[in-house]
UniProtKB/TrEMBL annotation:
Keywords: Transferase. It comes from the Bacteria. GO terms for molecular function: acyltransferase activity, transferring groups other than amino-acyl groups. This is GNAT family N-acetyltransferase. The keyword Transcription does not apply. CDD domains: NAT_SF. Residues 1-197 form the N-acetyltransferase domain. It comes from Jiangella ureilytica.
Length: 197
């Protein structure tokens, strides 16, 4: 089991990891009519716009990843210009029945959340990390995070933030162990951040 940089050709496998961890770390495969939808939001734009900040756990095939964006507002602007428009054309509002997870994420891609200026002032970068169960408990998550933190620091980002669901207690404890602190909390989740050094 190794950690390596993202390579072209990994996309489908990383989309699959995203889906298989898309229920607060558990498998969300049965919850989506379109198995690519989550990956189009949480994986694709990072591979397109920030490939040097994408690292993969590989045990013969990709089994986890960490993805980052150095400058969140700039990344959001790039997505708005280039990534979201074709997806909005492919997934108009109403593509899926109301109340489904697919419908919720179609809303997300039509009305993406914008980062809070108060958070990105000190923590301008952000990240997503997902690991399949077979890679967990083996130090891969910590190693992935260290690779990304080093890369973000070298890229000039002083701090990084992330979002985590309130139900994902294991992930919250993992981030706290890595030095992340809670910056904002809502009933649905929290935003956490830490310096890159």
């Amino acid at each position: 089991m190794i950690i390596r940089p993202y390579a072209p050709g990994d996309e489908d496998a990383l989309y699959d990891v995203c889906l298989r961890t898309g229920d607060s770390g558990a498998d969300a495969t049965g919850q989506f009519a379109d198995p690519r939808l989550l990956g189009e939001i949480f994986v694709g734009p990072y591979l397109r716009f920030e490939p040097s900040l994408a690292f993969v756990v590989d045990d013969g095939e990709p089994a986890g990843y960490v993805l980052g964006a150095r400058d969140t507002p700039a990344f959001e602007r790039e997505c708005e210009r280039e990534w979201w428009p074709p997806l909005r054309a492919r997934y108009p509002i109403g593509t899926f029945p109301d109340g489904t997870r697919d419908a919720h994420y179609v809303e997300v891609l039509h009305r993406p959340h914008a980062a809070d200026p108060a958070i990105v002032a000190d923590y301008p970068a952000h990240l997503h990390i997902d690991l399949l169960p077979r890679t967990q408990g083996r130090g891969m998550g910590r190693a992935l995070m260290q690779r990304l933190l080093d890369a973000l620091r070298e890229a000039g980002a002083p701090g990084v933030h992330l979002g985590v669901g309130a139900a994902n207690a294991r992930a919250i404890a993992f981030y706290e162990h890595l030095g992340f602190t809670t910056l904002r909390e809502t009933p649905g989740g929290r935003t956490m951040g830490r310096p890159t050094s």
